[in-house]
């Protein structure tokens, strides 16, 4: 990775992928420190495209699923399956050449049933935790949108300099909503500090325990060849403790998402006190949304810190390996040398299911099949910035717009056309629109779209050739008057037609 010309980051200050020059980068404790480009910023490895995971769900692969390696647990099974192969070969050689080994096949049925139930319990429990994590992030996205919308629309801005202060305060609060999601992502990955590239600029001005605790450990990490190989094949003894940053902290780390939520609550209380947030229902909605954010924080913490009891994990692992080890003794009498490949395939299936359950048990990690929380954070940031991109909308700006088609697809007439009609005529048109069948409505909508595409095509042809077709003005006029035609056909209580 150090020889690459640059490293792409999925989430940057502009919320877009970017490339940073890495000539001066230094690899320290698994983090990338670019002193010349981002002084004092520590870039978490979860932001780097070239890492193992999580998988980018926006990418499309045309490879058949049976032939894919990325996202598969096959690399993790190489060492265990090789061990099973050696063991099975030894048992079959002894049975076929030296001393026949015979175990009644009923043992396969009994042990297989027990192991199947155990693996089913393991997989269903792990997947339930995975879905709990996904539901929490989905709920976080919805609550972030809701809180940002309520504050941006209903928090008023005063005049002159006070209005500027109100505007900047609203923007700062919306940034804290984004920071809540980003800080939650880091907390769930046991990254408790604030000096990360996607977080520091959002919360660097806040007085928090994480900021006071300093930066991640800066001690060089020299990994041996054995550890590198062990991590490649996911050997348990080679795995690093994911909570090591928490244990190395010299000062209290606090709870950064909770502290950010407290700052958001303080802002809401301030705008209620100064009278710029007067709508009572909006106040209630904002307070309820912040309570939901707190519940999301608790739900993710429950998933993270409540794994399957260790007794279950040990028992399921022991039963699985006992079944695999005894399997060649049961097959050699029936299948002879063919027991070797059959045992290998059976071990691959059984160990694969167990490995999948172990991998998705914690859905917040940096593995391939874990939740793509970078994508979720980027989506939340995008939604919040879209809400803040325009001044709070007024209702009359959209329903009184000249391009508004109130009765579309029943009629393509604009707002001004229907404004000239009486209330009875409008209600008759609404009643007629409701009586039109769904199929006829879809057909009429498709017909309107086809007419519009025809007009656009003729206009493009006119611009390219410089010749004006005689049918173009007529088609433009017909398209413009389609609302009037629809009104005369259906709006006076006539047949609903097709």
From TrEMBL:
Entries under InterPro entries matching the protein: YneE/VCCN1/2-like
Topology term for the membrane: Multi-pass membrane protein
Biased composition (Polar residues): 478-488
Cellular localisation: Cell membrane
Ion transport in keyword set: yes
Region (Disordered) location: 447-498
Segment forming the signal sequence: none
Pfam family for this entry, one: Bestrophin_2
Transmembrane intervals: 77-95, 101-121, 335-356
Record's GO cellular component terms: plasma membrane
GO molecular function: chloride channel activity
Keyword annotations: Cell membrane, Ion transport, Membrane, Transmembrane, Transmembrane helix, Transport
Keyword presence, Ion transport: yes
Protein name, entry field: Membrane protein
Source organism of this protein record: Pleomassaria siparia CBS 279.74
Lineage: Eukaryota, Fungi, Dikarya, Ascomycota, Pezizomycotina
């Amino acid at each position: 990775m150090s020889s690459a010309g640059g490293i792409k980051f999925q989430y940057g200050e502009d919320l877009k992928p970017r490339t940073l020059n890495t000539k001066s980068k230094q690899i320290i404790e698994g983090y990338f420190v670019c002193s010349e480009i981002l002084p004092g910023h520590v870039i978490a490895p979860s932001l780097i495209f070239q890492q193992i995971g999580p998988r980018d769900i926006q990418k499309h692969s045309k490879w058949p699923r049976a032939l894919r390696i990325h996202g598969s647990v096959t690399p993790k099974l190489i060492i265990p399956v090789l061990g099973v192969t050696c063991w099975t070969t030894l048992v079959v050689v002894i049975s076929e050449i030296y001393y026949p080994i015979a175990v009644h096949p009923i043992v396969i049925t009994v042990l297989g049933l027990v192991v199947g139930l155990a693996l089913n319990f393991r997989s269903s429990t792990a997947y339930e935790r995975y879905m709990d994590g996904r539901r929490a992030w989905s709920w976080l996205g919805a609550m972030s949108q809701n809180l940002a919308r309520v504050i941006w629309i209903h928090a008023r801005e005063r005049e002159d300099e006070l209005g500027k202060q109100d505007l900047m305060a609203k923007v700062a609060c919306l940034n804290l909503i984004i920071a809540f999601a980003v800080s939650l992502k880091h907390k769930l990955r046991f990254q408790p500090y604030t000096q990360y590239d996607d977080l520091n600029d959002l919360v660097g001005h806040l007085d928090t325990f994480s900021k006071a605790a300093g930066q991640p450990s800066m001690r060089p990490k020299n990994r041996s060849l054995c550890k590198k190989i062990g991590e490649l094949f996911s050997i348990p003894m080679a795995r690093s403790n994911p909570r090591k940053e928490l244990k190395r902290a010299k000062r209290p780390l606090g709870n950064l998402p909770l502290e950010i939520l407290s700052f958001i609550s303080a802002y809401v209380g301030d705008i209620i006190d100064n009278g710029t947030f007067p709508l009572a229902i909006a106040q209630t909605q904002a307070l309820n949304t912040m309570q939901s954010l707190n519940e999301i924080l608790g739900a993710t913490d429950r998933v993270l810190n409540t794994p399957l009891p260790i007794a279950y994990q040990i028992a399921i692992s022991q039963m699985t390996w006992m079944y695999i080890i005894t399997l060649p003794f049961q097959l050699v009498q029936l299948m002879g040398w063919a027991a070797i490949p059959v045992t290998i395939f059976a071990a691959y299936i059984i160990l694969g299911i167990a490995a999948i359950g172990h991998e998705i048990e914690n859905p917040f990690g940096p593995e391939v099949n874990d939740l793509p929380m970078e994508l979720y954070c980027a989506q939340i940031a995008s939604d919040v910035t879209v809400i803040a991109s325009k001044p709070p909308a007024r209702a009359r700006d959209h329903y009184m717009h000249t391009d508004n088609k109130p009765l579309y697809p029943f009629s393509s007439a604009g707002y001004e056309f229907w404004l000239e009609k009486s209330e009875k005529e409008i209600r008759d048109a609404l009643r007629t629109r409701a009586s039109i069948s769904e199929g006829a409505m879809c057909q009429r909508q498709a017909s309107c779209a086809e007419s519009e595409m025809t007009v656009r095509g003729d206009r493009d042809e006119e611009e390219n050739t410089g010749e004006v077709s005689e049918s173009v003005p007529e088609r433009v006029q017909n398209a413009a008057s389609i609302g009037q035609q629809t009104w005369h056909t259906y709006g006076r209580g006539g047949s609903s037609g097709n």
